[in-house]
From TrEMBL:
This is fructose-bisphosphatase. It catalyses: beta-D-fructose 1,6-bisphosphate + H2O = beta-D-fructose 6-phosphate + phosphate. Its EC number is 3.1.3.11. Transmembrane segments: none annotated. Residues 80-261 form the Fructose-1-6-bisphosphatase class I N-terminal domain. It comes from the Eukaryota. The keyword Nuclease does not apply. Pfam families: FBPase, FBPase_C. SUPFAM superfamilies: Carbohydrate phosphatase (SSF56655). Residues 265-388 form the Fructose-1-6-bisphosphatase class 1 C-terminal domain. It comes from Xanthoceras sorbifolium. It is an enzyme of class 3 (hydrolase). Belongs to the FBPase class 1 family. Keywords: Carbohydrate metabolism, Hydrolase.
Amino acid sequence: MQLSTILLHPTPIFQPKPFHFPPTNSRHFSGTNISRPGMASFSGFGLVGSQKSGSLSVVEYDSSGNCTLMDFVGKGGVNVGDDLVVLMHHIQYACKRIAALVASPFNSSLGNQTGAAAIVTGGSDRDAPKPLDLLSNEIILSSLRNSGKVAVMASEEDDSPLWINDDAPFVVVTDPLDGSRNIDASIPTGTIFGIYRRLVELDHLPEEEKALLNSLQSGSRLVAAGYVLYSSATILCASFGSGTHAFTLDHSTGDFVFTHPNIKIPPRGQIYSVNDARYFDWPEGLRRYIDTVRQGKGKYPKKYSARYICSLVADLHRTLLYGGVAMNPRDHLRLVYEANPLSFLVEQAGGKGSDGKIRILSIQPVKLHQRLPLFLGSSEDIEELKSYGDVQQKVNPGYEV
Ligand SMILES: O=P(O)(O)OC[C@H]1O[C@](O)(COP(=O)(O)O)[C@@H](O)[C@@H]1O
C-alpha cells in the first residue's frame, strides 16, 4: 500500500462524523464513588466539578447509558466552551486515526516508502523522526487545521512552530507519537497534547516570532492537556483544569466513553519506573533513593517494584492509576511537548511533576525543544525522592538502543 493511500484512507472504521453539540435532553445520573485499595480512586461517577463555577454539574449520557468525551466537554457536561469543544472533537478524531495507524498491518513497511528513516535533523536538538512519527504529525496537523480553532501548532516533529490561523483562539503543543521506537514490537505508544490560549498581545509581531513566543508559554498557563494511550485499550486522559478524567475508545461506535472520572493518584505508590541500565551514570542521590526503596527501607516500609515500558505515556498512565514515580533523570524529555502537559495532568490528579528540584509547571521555557530530567508521580514519593538532593543525571552520553 502506498503512503498516500494510507494518508487518504487511514481509518475505514472511523469515518469523520459531522460534528453536533451534545444533545441536551439526555438522562441524568447521580454520583457514586469508585475506589480500589492501593489504586487511584475515581470519585463522583456521573458528577464532575464545573470548571467555571466550581460547583458540581451533571454530565449527560446518551440513550445507551454512555457518556462520551464530547458529552463530557459539552454544554450538558463541564461546558469547556464551544471553541474548545470543537477543538477536542478534532483532536480525538486525529487520535482515532493514529490508533488505527499504529495497529495497521501496513505500518512496518512505511519506512521504505517514505525514506523518512534517512531524514537528518540538521544539527537540531531532535532525534531523527520515524515514518510513523511523521504520519502522526500530519494527521494531527490536518485535524488542527480543520478545526479552525488553532492559531499555532508546535510539534516535537517540527523544527519550528507552524502559524495556522490569525484569529483562532488556541495554541497546541504536541508530541504526536511518543515511544515510537517501540512500535515494531507492538508495545504501547501515545500522543501528548497541551492547549494554551493565543496571546493576543503578540498579534502585531511577524508570524515566525509570534508562533515561537506563543509556543513557549509556561505550563502554568495551560488551559487543557491530555494524552492518548494506544495499548490493549485506547485511552484518552485529559484535564480541562478541573480534575483529570479518562475515556476509553469503544471500537464498535468510535466514541471515547467516560470510564475514569476524577482520577486521584494515590499519595504513595510502591512502584518506581526508570531505565535502570543507566544506574552507573546516575548521581549519588538517585542511586541511594532507588537502593533504599527497592529494599523497603524508605519512608514507606515496603519493597518497591520496578516497571519500565520505555513509553512515557504508558509509564505515566500506570503511575496515575497505581501510584509511585515515573522518571527519566537525564536531559531527554521535552519541557514543551511532554513535561508540561503531563505535569498538568498529574497535578490535576493530586500528584506532582518535578525536574528533581523545582515544579515543572513553574519553569519558563526558553527553547522550543528544551529537554530536562522529569519526575512524575505520587506526591509523597516525589517529595521523598527530592529529599535525596542529587537526582538529576548530568552524564548523558546519548544511548543508542
Ligand atoms: O532511553 P531512555 O532514557 O530510557 O528514554 C526513554 C523515553 O524516551 C521516549 O521514548 C521518548 O523519546 P522520544 O520523544 O525521542 O521518542 C519515552 O517514551 C521514554 O520514556
